Amino acid sequence: MESQPSLSGRTPSRSNSDANAATSSSTSQSLSSILNNPNASDSASWIGWWSSSTAVAPPEFVPLSSKAASDVARSDFQPYLASISEPYHRFEDIRNHSSKENLDLDGIGGQGEALVACLREVPALYFKEDFALEEGATFRSACPFSNVSENLGLQEKLSHYLDVVELHLVKEISLRSNSFFEAQGQLQDLNVKIVEGCNRIRELKETIRLLDVDLIESATQIHELNATRSNLLALQQKLRLILYVNQALSALKLLVASADCAGALDVTDDLQHLLDGDELTGLHCFRHLRDHVAASIDSVNSILSAEFMRASIHDTGDTDVVILSKAKATTSIHANGKDGEVRLDEEETSSFQDRLLPVIIGLLRTAKLPAVLRLYRDTLTADMKTAIKNAVAELLPVLVSRPDSEFTPGERTTDADGAGASLASKLRSLSSESFVQLLGVIFMIVKAHLVRAAEVKKAIEWIMSNLDGHYAANSVAAAIAVGAAVAETALDNDGQGAFALPYSPQRSVSKVPPLQAKVNDSASPSNISRNFRADVLRENTEAVFAACDAAHGRWAKLLGVRALLHPKLRLQEFLSIYNITQDFITATEKIGGRLGYSIRGTLQSQAKAFVDFQHESRMTKIRAVLDQETWVEVDVPDEFQAIASSLFFSEALISGNLDDSQSNTETTRNEVVSNNDSSFAQKQIEQTNSGEISADTNVKEKSVSMDEANKIDNKSSSPQNNNINAKERGKTMSQTLLYKDVGYHMVNCGLILLKMLSEYVDMNSFLPALSSEVVHRVVEILKFFNTRTCQLVLGAGAMQVSGLKSITSKHLALASQVISFIYAIIPEIRRILFLKVPDARKAMLSSEIDRVAQDYKVHRDEIHTKLVQIMRERLLVHLRNLPQIVESWNRPDDADPHPSQFARSLTKEVGFLQRVLSRTLHDVDVQAIFRQVVIIFHSQISEAFSRIEINTPQAKDRLHRDVTHILGCVRSLPTDNLNSSGIPNWGQLDEFLAQRFGTEAG
Predict the structure, then answer these.
(1) Closest Cα to residue 888, out of 967, 954, 966?
(2) DSSP 3-state of 636
(3) By the 8 A CB rule, do 934 and 968 touch?
(4) Is 544 helix (H, G, I), strand (E, B) or coil?
């Protein structure tokens, strides 16, 4: 029985041998009483003492077997050990608690441990705060009994719990009793010591009182007298300060009243220094001093601002009056903006800078220069707008009433009532010359204002940056430092409404920068001054640019009022407006230092509208001219010859570097343009413009030219003689248009197209920004002219629109000449136009022009093919009548010695075609055409004659005469085709003649 604790590992850890013996004895007795319990079958009576929730079945004893002792093994006791294991463990716990209760009090670990043991032994149910047996659940948990015996056991258990609690409470009280009595003794000792300390303090106080009376009283009196003296001296200093401040306020009022801004700012700096210190603290009489100083600084700023505005802006009003008075007095105003130009010489510039110097220094000291420059910018802009508005209002009545001899009908537009016209309508009613004069005056006024603004900008930049060695350099540097400090302080105050008073130079250097340097290295004095200087220079530059921008806006508005009129102007009239605007933009951008995108956009849009309108009007004109063209040759006025000749000198004309011959050519052209109003081509252009051209008149006038051409043709059929005769005619007219020493016979539409192309070249030269647009328009009009000419001549459209009865070879030849001339000048036109075209667009535009040139070449070749086809058709018509003519040859009464009607008619028509083409076309074209005609004649006529049956010698003779006659005509055709024997135009017909009649006859 004693071996079980060692088997279960729960041996008690006590060291006292007596305690162990007692524990062992009690354990044996307790276990024996449990095992010998007569109520072994009723487990509730003894299990309840240990646990109310666990029931252990009593062990069942089995009779020992009759085996020998040597046969007993440990496994035989295993069922018994298993059955008593758990009750034994509980018993061991109870024994441990009992042994612990019997230990001496010194063996207890400390205060509170007994209560912990109590809580461990007594179930936690009884320690709950809401423990109440009245509740059914609590009662059933605390008193789980079912009969009387269990009730008795429960009462014993509860009594045991009560005894345990009381025992542990007594132990805790006994543990704490020693400490309680020890603390009470210490309190009594402390009370005794406190009484002794109070007595000692009373004695020390009495000793100090005696020492104070005997030793310190006299010394204290001396100290008080010295303090009184110091107070009196401080009062005297304070009174002197009050006197100084009072005198400074009086002086400040006088200085402000006399506009002595520098002296006033010196006084305000001193007063502000006093206010920032503590000298005036607590003086009720100076409670409004800060407001007085702020008001004085406001007054000084107002004076300085007014003086700056007067010196910078208002002094230019006299210049406006002078310019306007001159403009009203003179009948012509130069539109280059140079008359009345305001320029300050070196002495005036120096004087102006000296005038602005004290004003700028004062504004720098108060940090108001950026704000004043912003005000100056707004005032300058408003003054610029007002000056332009006044100039327009004063000059418009003068320009409207001024007679203009160059007005074209309908150029001026007036209101229906003739009075009370608005400003815009008056501007639109001005001629282009008057409008340019108005722009010239505005140009001079704007330039006067901008030059003055530029001088102000230059003076401020000089004061801010270039005063090295100047007597005021130190003053400016100190003013910049003060202004920068004030601006930085105002920024730190984050926009407070009170006026930021300036600091004195000494205070700004000694106080503000170190404070700011703690915040950021960029806020050092040098960086603050640099930022403040940059702010001033930026506002200074913005003021001039704002003025330029305002001038650009007003100028663009004036152009916008007449936006619908400018595209309808002549080129020179539009160029006068365009050029003065370009000069204005250049001059203002040079002064302002920035590009004026708005006015450039306005000018560019109006220039594009001008090009578009001019192109549309020319397309309409050339369409009308082509529809009314009768394709009759006209003489070429010298005006158009000068245009063709000028193509050789176009590059020099554009650059302006002309030699003597080129100058003479241009002069002659200008004279012809101005004086040749009665020429035939000019009449045609004017009639086309007015829409009054008449088909009958064209026929009559052009028939005269045709008669003259016929007379010349009777004299000589050679084109060379024709050119010579043309040169021998009058000086103002010529029959051909010479280009690169080649003459071209022209019709009316060709001359008008040449004039239009020259106008496009002029637009390209004077409007280089729109060169690509001009090239597109030239390509378009060339395409239209080529297409419409093909429809009218090759497509016979002229028979419907122009009333022609037929399209003759003369019409085809003239159309070929016109097309050839345009094809010849296209490369030169391209070279001239491409002088202004950007390189990036040249490739695309060049391909378009090449396609147009190829179309003209194809058109010319088709006309020549048509001429050959006409002659072939005429030959086929005559060949169809040949069998009837051959039948008459076999008649005996046919004795006509001349060639037959077939041969005579054929050779007559060929000769007429030769005369027409030789007089109109170039030799190369004529030879190319008749080379094909000769081939057709040889093949068709020889084939037709080969099929003829000749029965009589008379018919054979007639055939010989016809072949010989036709061969004579063929050999006279200009083909430049010789055989090996030198016979011109040898072919199949010659071989036919040799076969039929022998070599001698051929």
Answers:
(1) 954
(2) strand
(3) no
(4) helix
Report d(CA 462, CA 866) in Å as an integer.
82
pLDDT at position 984, please? 74
742: enclosing H helix or E strand? strand 742-745
CA triple 924-720-756, angle to 5 deg: 75
Q: Give the DSSP per-residue string, 480-522.
A: HHHHHHHHHHHHHTTS-SS--PPPPHHHHHHTHHHHHHHH-GG
SS3 744: strand
The number of beta carbons lying within 10 Å of the beta carbon of residue 58 is 18
Q: What per-residue confidence (pLDDT) applies to 70?
A: 57
Query: In this structure, are residues 728 and 928 in contact, taking their beta carbons and an 8 Å threshold?
Result: no
Find, among 306, 347, 546, the residue nearest to 449 by Cα: 546
Q: What is the pLDDT of residue 947?
A: 80
b (16+ CB within 10 A) / e for 676-700: beebbbbebbebbeeeebeeeebee
pLDDT at position 140 is 80
| Residue 646: closest CA among 849, 825, 850 | 825
Distance CA 624, CA 772 (A): 26
Joined together, the tokens standing for residue 588 give 């203002």
Cross-strand pairs, 634: 746
Identity at 808, one-letter amino acid code: T
The amino acid occupying position 931 is: R
- CA dist., res. 481 & res. 504, Å (int): 10
Residues 6+ apart with CB under 8 A from 518: none
In contact, 757 and 784? CB cutoff 8 Å: no
406-429 burial, b at 16+ Cβ within 10 Å, e below that, comes to: eeeeebeeeeeeeeebeeeebbbb
Place of tokens 């230092």: 593
Burial of 771 (0-12, 13-18, 19+ CB in 10 A): buried
pLDDT confidence of residue 49: 41
Instruction: List b or e across 802-835, with b for residues whose CB sees 16 or more CB atoms inside 10 angstroms.
Output: bebeebebbbbbbbbbbbbbbbbbbebbbebbbe
Below-50 pLDDT ranges, the chain: 1-62, 66-67, 104-105, 334-337, 339-340, 405-420, 494-522, 651-731, 1000-1002
pLDDT score at 701:
36
Determine if the pTM surpasses 0.70: no
The string of DSSP letters for 284-327 reads GGGTTHHHHHHHHHHHHHHHHHHHHHHHHTGGGHHHHHHHHHHH
Strand partners, 984: 978
The Cα 180–Cα 177 span in angstroms is: 5
Residue pair 512/489 in contact by the 8 Å Cβ criterion: yes
- Name 587's Cβ contacts closer than 8 Å, sequence gap at least 6: 337, 443, 447, 450
Gap between the Cα atoms of 856 and 826, Å rounded: 10
Question: First vs last Cα of the chain: how many Å apart?
Answer: 173
Residue 51's pLDDT is 41
Nearest to 108 by CA among 168, 166, 21: 168
Residue 61: what pLDDT? Answer: 46
Q: Which residues contact 633 (CB under 8 A, 6 or more apart)?
A: 702, 705, 706, 709, 735, 745, 746, 747, 814, 920
CB 248 within 8 A of CB 274: no
Structure tokens at 943: 């084939």
pLDDT at residue 99 in the model: 73
**Amino acid letter, 949:** E
